[in-house]
């Protein structure tokens, strides 16, 4: 029982530390992504094609 409690505490601590550090690094990445998105506001789109359905393929 004592081993299980130590293992559960270690797993919870590792998860908490991972979540904490991930939130710190993700916040930095989110800021840099937002600044890159604002710089590319005049994005040019490529060509688009429209598909039309044909009722009788042999007649077309």
Provide structural commentary:
- The termini are far apart.
- With 60 residues, the chain is mainly alpha-helical.
- It is built from one helix and no strands.
- The mean pLDDT is 76.
- It has one domain (3-56).
User: Which series of helices and strands comes N to C?
Assistant: H
Structural class: mainly alpha
Give the helix proportion (percent range). 55-70%
Principal-axis shape equals elongated
Strand content: under 5%
Report the C-alpha radius of gyration, rounded. Answer: 27 Å
Poorly predicted runs = none
N-to-C CA distance: 78 Å
Care to count the β-strands?
Answer: 0
Please tell me the overall pLDDT. 76
**What is the tally of helical segments?**
1
Count of the separate structural domains = 1
Name the features.
60 residues, mainly alpha
Write a short abstract of this structure.
The protein has one helix spanning 2-39.
Blueprint of the fold:
Elements (H helix, E strand, L loop, with lengths): L1 H38 L21
